[in-house]
Amino acid sequence: MTMTPDTTAKATGPSTGTPSGTEIRLDRVTKDYGLAAPAVDDISLTIEPGEFMTLLGPSGSGKTTTLNLIAGFETLTAGSIALNGTDVSDVPPHRRNLGMLFQNYALFPHLTVAQNVAYPLRERKVGKREIARKVAEVLELVQLTGRDDNHPSQLSGGQQQRVALARAIVFEPEALLLDEPLGALDRNLRSALQTEIRRIHREVGSTFVFVTHDQEEAMNLSDRIALFNNGRIEQVGTPQQLYAEPETLFTAKFLGDSNVFELGEAALDANVAWDGESWVIDPATVAAHPGVRASSAVVVRPEDVEVAGGRDDVPAGANAVRATVRDVEYMGSYRTLLLAMGERGLPGRTRVSPLQGEYAIGDDLVAWWRPQAQRIVAA
Amino acid sequence: MSSNKIKWSSWPLLVPALALLAGILLVPLADTFIRSVSAPGTYTNLLTDGVTMTVLWRTVVTAATVTVAALLIGYPYAYLMTRVSPRARGILLVIVLIPFWTSVMARNFAWIIILQDGGPVQSLFAFFGAEDVVLYGSTAGVTIAMTQVMLPFMVLPLFSTLGGIDRRLLLAARGLGSSPTAAFWKVFWPLSRGGVMAGVILVFTLSLGFYVTPALLGSPQESLVAQLLAQRTTLLLDFAAAGALGMVVLVVTLVLVAWANRMGGTVSAIGVVAASPPKDR
Questions:
Q1: Per-residue pLDDT tens digits for B201-233
Q2: Which residues of A touch B186 (CB under 8 A)?
Q3: Distance in angstroms between the alpha carbons of the first and the last residue of chain B
Q4: CB-nearest partner of A106 from B169, B190, B279
Q5: Do B175 and A98 lie within an 8 Å CB cutoff?
Q6: Is the ipTM of this complex over 0.90?
Q7: Which of A123, B94, B173, B211 is 20 to 30 Å from A104 at the Cα level?
Q8: For B172, which of A1, A100, A154 is closest by C-beta distance?
Q9: Greatest Cα pair distance in chain A
Q10: Crossing angle of helices B27-38 and B239-262, rounded to 10°
Q11: How far apart, in whole angstroms, are the C-alpha atoms of residue A162 and residue A156?
């Protein structure tokens, strides 16, 4: 077991005070398994020190491969990865000093809870008393004090993942990599552990890179989200940015519900006819998207779509379209109306509160929204 | 397995097997034991006749050598089997099983031809300048042939155990700071111990009582326990002494199985291991 001197010092150093996070920089990273398309295709991404970055995307989008590249479990086909400015592209995983959390917990079944947590410290030749102190400290952090001598098989899934979390942070790694760590847990436990992971991120202050395909989880946890699609990053931004200002149709559809209207050839004039209705596009929105092509689409979130009984109830300057209620979904605090919009009967959704009255299938109404609420995205 | 409680109503299903066991195992065993203690001085003779203890010790050493050799060959082989494609795994499995399916006699006669004076192995050694290597009729030759005969009993339980180990645990160990070598010794090896124990027990106990190979390939001057037993029953007709010797071998075997069970391997009735990590209740 050989360690570079600085990481040994870091692992054995005093744990008082917040360790400053590590910057992770991916520069034109590619991973090609020789299949039809590269698993990760020329990705550049900078994860700021102490940031909670989520790699979000459908399965097969390259997010897990990217995490494994950062961890060193996979080798790069092209590009480079740097931790705090130091190129680690050729450094084997055990010298990268990164914590890793797996979906299946990956606890060592032949070791007790305390031995599991002590494992990375033993590998770093930390003294016995120091190990005991740190293990007790981190087990308290994950609220598992007193379970030291249990074997992993004696713990519930949630407890096992907390042991894995303790093991992954006890050696104060440069960053923590989390590979769908909550995927195997039920809904209530997920939400409890999300809260716990956020708290631990605040308390240890190091960089977290979290992989998930669950957009709600990503929105809930992250400082920023990198949305993956087909081995590329579709968009990087805060959850609010990705939700409110999607740049591509994929982003708009992946995060939350959206109404999508494809634009025709003439649509980029400020005022065009659309499906027989008035179609207003906010000039600021057009100006913000100089590259918008004719194949672009307009995206409106369901909560931004209002309904009115008739044309007279729609404010001036709003986009309005006649619509028929096709279905009503009861969602508890609100209802979702599934609409057939315009002459072509385009599918649309809107949210209405019970205060707005009752709607039934077949009701004719007018759906409208303000131009400011719609986004133009590349299709 | 222990969580499956057997219903009382299913006990009658065991009656045929228990009757068979009583008839062909328990009764003869008791008979052998009674014969061995009814004649005076059988057990003290074993200790003092100067031959038995020598042969017993030689047998234990030979069985241990065979076991270690089978483990050293079988472990990497079983490991390789878990790492290759299903197709290649099938081929590797058949390579293990073909000798297993072949008659033990055929294999031993093959070894005689290979190891005999002027045979290919001796010629090979002679080619490299070692002229006086004698394998046929020696303990070394017996050990080599027995290792080959015993190899499937090592490979099969190892394969089933190694294949069940979650490879992601090795990734986890790498991520936590272990070099590939450290990850193997600290994670993979301890988790494979159940299979190692099962293979070691099977090979060692089978080797202790193995008759055919030592009888055909060994020499009377370097005989093993099974030969001694055969001699005492078929030539000397000294059933008391033979029974006592059999009892000693049985006790050695049982002690070994008990020790292995404590070490974490659980040997089930058919000798295949249920490799489970130790659990405290």
A1: 889 888 888 887 887 777 777 778 888 888 778
A2: 119
A3: 15
A4: B169
A5: yes
A6: no
A7: A123
A8: A100
A9: 78
A10: 120
A11: 10
